[in-house]
Amino acid sequence: MRETELSVKDFILPLFVRSGKGEKRPISSMPGHFQYSVDTAVKAAGAAVQAGVPGLILFGIPEKKDAKASGAYAENGIVQKAAKAIKDKHPDLLLIADLCFCEYTDHGHCGIVKGGRVLNDPTLALAARTAASQAKAGFDVIAPSGMMDGQVAAIRRALDSSGHSDVPVLAYAAKYASAYYGPFREAAESPPSFGDRSTYQMDPANFEEALREVALDVEEGADMVMVKPALPYLDVLKAVKARFGLPTAAYQVSGEFALIKAAAANGWVDEKRIALESLTSIKRAGADFILTYYALEAAQWLA
Ligand code: PBG
Ligand code: ZN
User: Which residue among 89, 161, 205, 288 has its CA within the 20 to 30 Å range from the CA of 137?
Assistant: First the structure.
């Protein structure tokens, strides 16, 4: 009689990659997660394959950050290198590229900044360039997370005109300006140096706007859409799946993970039960797949 069954096949594991060799730097607010160098990232990818996790999403910490986010689209950029190395060893592991600039800009915003403002349209050219570079490096899916208007169209055009018409776009379509991203910003070393992301990410109070945001991305050519964070936005997730019927992802973000970890470390909740209950609820609400820092642990619990 059970209507919803979680499977390891539902999970995508996020991985953070930085330069160096033999690196495995713990991320303090995300127990069990690390900043890897390319060589250790390949090992972590192997562990995911072993566990049956079908895919990864990669985030990069570049050696140097600048105003133009050069590291995001560098031929030898950190995620480009990691993708090549992982694909080399694990060709069947799905690789998703998070496409954003906050990890690569010196100010930590998701776009080009001028006079203290994030400029939407000049950011689109960089997004196009980054998408082509990521596809060339071997990524299977490009996932723009910057919430710039028109980014999906710009990326679709860039992929098509660079010989990557077969690479799909997973749009972070309804991404909220959320406090739940706190631990991620430690992991990716990407907190904004001034202001916040509320001029481009969504107001947590808005539901109708999420549907408009998703509609725009679908019109621009998104093949899959995402709602983020997951658990606090199940109403949005359910409506997006019902309204658009596209393959729909939910991102159980760093703060959702950290909250469970911290409470469990205090002995206040049963970690396994609460993590699986959260993931089951996300799937029940309509997620076809879930980006989650629990991917490996949940795989073990389900096995
Ligand atoms: C980049 C990006 C963020 C996350 C995914 N891609 C951070 C942000 O928007 O500040 C958050 C993921 C998480 O918290 O786990 N824009
Ligand atoms: Zn960003």
Answer: 288
SS3 label, residue 90: coil
- pTM above threshold 0.85: yes
Q: Is residue 211 a contact partner of residue 52, using CB atoms and an 8 Å limit? A: no
Show the tokens assigned to 243.
């309204």
Domain boundaries, the chain: 8-302
93 touches 43 (CB < 8 A): no
Tokens of 52: 């049956």
* 291 close to 250: Cβ distance less than 8 angstroms: yes
Q: Which residues contact ligand 1 via a Cβ below 6 A?
A: 98, 100, 102, 110, 145-146, 181, 184-185, 197, 253-254
Residue 257: how many other CB atoms lie within 10 Å: 25
**228 annotated active-site:** yes
Question: Which tens digits make up the pLDDT trace of 265-288?
Answer: 999 999 999 999 999 999 999 999
Among residues 81, 87, 175, 241, the one annotated as catalytic is 175
Work out which ligand 1 atom sits closest to the CA atom of 175: 9
Report H helices in 21-118.
38-51, 70-73, 78-89
Nearest Cα residue to 98 out of 41, 145, 159: 145
Per the CB < 8 A criterion, the answer to whether 36 and 190 are in contact is no
Find residue 225's DSSP bridge partners.
171, 248
Amino acid sitting at position 50: Q
CATH architecture of the domain formed by 8-302: Alpha-Beta Barrel (3.20)
Q: Which residue is closest in CA terms to ligand 1's atom 5?
A: 145
Is 175 catalytic? The answer is: yes
How far away, in angstroms, is 103 Cα from ligand 2 center? Answer: 7
User: What are the φ and ψ backbone dihedral angles of 168, each rounded to 5 degrees?
Assistant: -80, 160
